[in-house]
């Protein structure tokens, strides 16, 4: 590419998404006072465009509209245009997405919203085609109509925006209504289970027809429901639903069989054709879920999928300083000489390409069988491509194959007269060759922004996998990332988290000129990560930092009147609403996770006011939890933990002793959702002993590592056998 014709203010930003638009002919501003002042001074409507760097339809709208000189001139003449990276500013995104969903019945990205100069929304939508088509107004038409309306009916638009804002303020409020007690756990969990059971796809797993998202929050709920109802038919069904879904996802095209990790979601019912972007938050949550599936089932298949995810993240989403990048794009150039990017180009295959790469005859198989024949049969490859045209409206995948494991190893082995073990080794060799070949293709865009919240989710993934799979290397990687957060996304002077940092030139880590302060989700996911890391490593520094951050979260976000936490802190005049997320989606909402965080914090500190806060959050969301708990499966799960009380599993012993290690292996190998683990190593000056004086009264029995099961700081009789401890942990 030659010298760009246009350069706007976004060139000075750090966000990869904003930088993608720095050479549009649109006079973009970042979200901030300069843009707001211009809108007021010139009495212009603000056009707000919100997206993220790996969003397919954001790329489409940029290509069609924001790169158009003619449309750019209309935008510059009539509007003050603002670009926002929703991953940097989830607070701004949430306010205006609430408006778009309320007024249009749908939402998504790119989000397009028109605001008055005082930032009140009055019109909005998502993607607009550039010109009118199929009875739908094009972007150019919409721009001109809104400019005309502002010119001729300004007072009506201002009045309308005021009314809309007041309505949003009332409908989005979450607070305690009269009663101040949490909803009954049994009813909430049973209703959530029934709602998930009704929406479950018996054949392919998952909880909708299409599109299908991984939604780890649903699977975590089902695991906890099973753990609390192990001996009932409902408990057995909950476990079957979760494990079947995880197996079908791992076999599907949503799972990258060559380059590891999981794509964003499946466009069809069968987990076959995905939207190909890969998000850090999915990898972190899925690594933890597959590790739990292994803990529960003992099936090595689930452990291998967890390792696969962590291999992908270690190789492709890791910064050398220790942090994790946000995402990889869906679109890339098919070849080094291509002029246009295509969705999935990095990941899909033509049949003839596979035959050329895998020509070797297979020993012991039916005569004339090549590696390519075996591989193509196992992964559903067809000569003319295996993508249904209905899943490929732009014909980007015509003639291509998305790999999907359609047979078991046993069936494919029988088909070619091979042993399953031999077949497994052959498929591994094929995947290795294809990985080498794929590395020659142009890679998709990498969003090298590093977010505190998503790094927290990924630290939890590494820490939980490290504990469940007894892989110390994963625990070490989690600790490396936590140290990165403390260095780059924490301000020791204020004691506060920052939202984001960025890979700079020469692989340095850079910060914005004015750093973005952490939001509620940053605190919540980092605190969860530090608790998970403590339980995996038993290094008390992580515990101490987690409790400090919990105090800071209370100070910045707690709503003392209506209870629960606001998503953003007070005092930002550009934010029209302080909201509380009320839906667990691709990521759990922060208030859902914080219930369990607060209960864990109370167990590690003795501060029982945190238990009270957890109950107050459940009370604030009581109506929603009782009517549609399927909207909040993580919070529904937390009601069970709240009502069953967390058990403190205390191991007294020398951290280096084999008997202590055996006890710890035992605790970590059992899935028990209502336990916290702590090591009493006899160091009475240590952080834990200062927090929990009762630990001083616990001692080793007969000089051996000894376990105590405590509830509300009252402990059971001591246990010195790992087998006996296992029985206590899994009733």
From TrEMBL:
<dbReference type="InterPro" id="IPR008928">
    <property type="entry name" value="6-hairpin_glycosidase_sf"/>
</dbReference>
<feature type="domain" description="Spermatogenesis-associated protein 20-like TRX">
    <location>
        <begin position="7"/>
        <end position="168"/>
    </location>
</feature>
<dbReference type="GO" id="GO:0005975">
    <property type="term" value="P:carbohydrate metabolic process"/>
</dbReference>
<dbReference type="InterPro" id="IPR012341">
    <property type="entry name" value="6hp_glycosidase-like_sf"/>
</dbReference>
<protein>
    <submittedName>
        <fullName>SPT20 protein</fullName>
    </submittedName>
</protein>
<dbReference type="InterPro" id="IPR004879">
    <property type="entry name" value="Ssp411-like_TRX"/>
</dbReference>
<dbReference type="InterPro" id="IPR024705">
    <property type="entry name" value="Ssp411"/>
</dbReference>
<dbReference type="Pfam" id="PF03190">
    <property type="entry name" value="Thioredox_DsbH"/>
</dbReference>
<dbReference type="InterPro" id="IPR036249">
    <property type="entry name" value="Thioredoxin-like_sf"/>
</dbReference>
